[in-house]
Amino acid sequence: VQDYIERYTVKKKIKFHLNKRQLSFITIGKGVMGKLHTQNFINLGIKFNGYYNLSYNSNNKRVSSNLSQDIIKNIDFIVLSTPNKYHYEYLKFFSDFKNIYVFVDKPLVISRDEYLNLSKINKNFLNKIFLAFNLNFQSNFIFLKKYFSDKNKNIVKVKSVWHRNIDLNIKNSAHNALLSGGGVLIDWGSHILGLISDIIEIKSFEIIDTSFNQKIINEENNILETSCEINSKINSFVFEIDLSWESSVSTPLKIDFYFDDKSIIRWHKNGLIEYLNNNKRKSLYNSKYSSIYHYFILNIFKNEISNSFSKYDFISNFIDLSYKRLIKT
Asked: What are phi and psi of 217, to 5 degrees?
């Protein structure tokens, strides 16, 4: 009921603003997620001006484009949903335009160096980048954030598990290491790191140990990382990641928060939040309605995007150091 009321109220607010000022957008990337994002914005009453692209050769040099300055100057935002490899070049291209917001699929970029290079460009543009981590806007995660803020508990450990058995030969940019930037850690891990950094103030972290499984998929040199286990420390608690695309048992994403009173709060991607203590289990919440599109549009009208570029600093650094730790060992 609460989700329904919120959905109705937010849609009413958006309609009120659109009656005063219509918004329009374009989409870069015509894959599954690009089409999904596009349709969700159209459903909110936003004017869609079409799909566009920049084309690159094998050396990552731009060779053609059906984008013009006039097209970009006459829209309010861009949905960027290309393979991960191209995010960096597109964001650099868009940074020359004023007052354009960019709704970017995760991950923002595929390397720490790309993130640091972007951080040096137009700060006004960086403040208009919105990271499309939809799980951060699920109602059960918003509930979890409030639950933690109301409770005075000390976290001693956080463990995240996400397993599936995926046919990696299916054509998909996430299954191509040259396009995705690596595989399961950057594709799924960036989601988990985004959730953790949104609920906990990260003061320090350390990568203790890492383990990756890799295999060649389809083509030569496409060495895809298909599973990983990372043992780390964030602030004063243990943080573990266990991801797999080749597991015999499917485990939808869950994150366990262990507390010093030996209780556990278990967050599920499917919308459920459970409380576990002394073999007792009870449901605290169960809904996965996501407000990400509403949030983004309302914040354009406010001329502010608080879910911004700086949040990717921790994510890019954690992934980068995880790979470096593997190389050292």
From this structure: -115, 125
